[in-house]
Amino acid sequence: MAEVVTSIWRLDRRVRRLPGETRAVTRYLEMAWDTFTQAGIKIQEHLNDPFDPGLALEVLSYQPALGLDRDRVVETIRPSIYLNDHVIQRGEVIVGTPGPVAKEATP
């Protein structure tokens, strides 16, 4: 179930970035989200959420990022998925940390 939900989540993210008219496709995706909701499935993306080490997330990497006041999720690789409030998939994220970003060397 988690793999199906994750695949539809990824498809939704890609379709929403396409140029042009995508209303027909997004309508079917919204119907899928409604079906998941009615079945007790909740999807949490985590993008831009504040990060604390005690959260039930798999951190794939930490990376310095400009403009952050605290650790934040800067990319979600896989969303957290809950079935009737029980975790069936832990989110996989990349966490941005406040601080300078290394500058590229110029020749």
Question: What does this 3D model show about the protein?
Answer:
By secondary structure, the chain is of the alpha+beta class. About 30% of the residues lie in helices and about 35% in strands. Strands 1-4-5 form a 3-stranded antiparallel sheet. A 3-stranded mixed sheet has the order 2-6-3, with no helix packed on it. A hairpin with a 2-residue loop joins strand 4 and strand 5. The termini are far apart. The mean pLDDT is about 90.
How do the helices and strands line up, and which of them pair or pack?
Blueprint lengths: L1 H16 L5 H16 L2 E4 L12 E9 L6 E7 L1 E4 L2 E4 L1 E8 L9
Parallel strand pairs: 2-6
Antiparallel strand pairs: 1-4, 3-6, 4-5
pLDDT < 50 runs, ≥5 residues: none
Number of strands: 6
Helix/strand/pairing category: alpha+beta
Task: Report the total helices.
Answer: 2
Q: Name the helicity range.
A: 25-40%
Distance between the termini: 51 Å
The largest beta-sheet arranges its strands as 1-4-5
Name the shape in a single word: flat
Evaluate the radius of gyration: 17 Å
**H/E series:** HHEEEEEE
- Give the biggest beta sheet: 3 strands, antiparallel
* Average predicted local confidence, pLDDT: 88
* Percentage of residues in DSSP E strands: 25-35%
